[in-house]
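Methods — Computational structure assignment.
A single polypeptide chain was analysed. Its primary sequence is given first, followed by the predicted tertiary structure written as structure tokens.
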Amino acid sequence: MDIKSLSKIDVSQIIKNKNLLANIGIIVLALVVIRNMHVGQVQKINLLKDQIKKENEITEFIDSLKAQEDKLDKLQKNFQVNLTTDRVIEKISVFAKENNIRINSIDAQTSLDKKNYQLLPITLRIESNYHKLGNLVSDIENTGFLKIRTLYVDNRQSYHSETPTESEIVLNLYAVYIKKK
């Protein structure tokens, strides 16, 4: 059948082919049902895609939190907890002895209380040459909890002497440690 022949269709022919009409109706109804099911499935798929996207965002957030916690743990491992003045002085003394440096005095001041940590100021007076001083500074800085704030060298004796002498050196240090909660 073509379009031109549709105008020539007689109603009596349609009545005779009731089965054809019923079949066309069933096919149209089936197509409508299938279309609606397809639209429903597409909506479900879009909902699932949105849920997957949200869950991926949550997973990324959790992963970033874990990475931050790992960084914090790594940082905290470098710091001492509730460090005592005696332990700091003992550590400095060991470094001086290992580097053959004579200590004239070690003066620890009162701790400075910060929000999450404490600073223990220490003044160290020593006699040393530059090579030994370099080794001592390296040892101190490698502890992770001792930091040199200032360093003064009085080498006036060296200028007036024909033989190399050790200079008088003052190191102002901080021992940094985390407060125990």
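Note: Residues 18-77 form the longest helix (60 residues).
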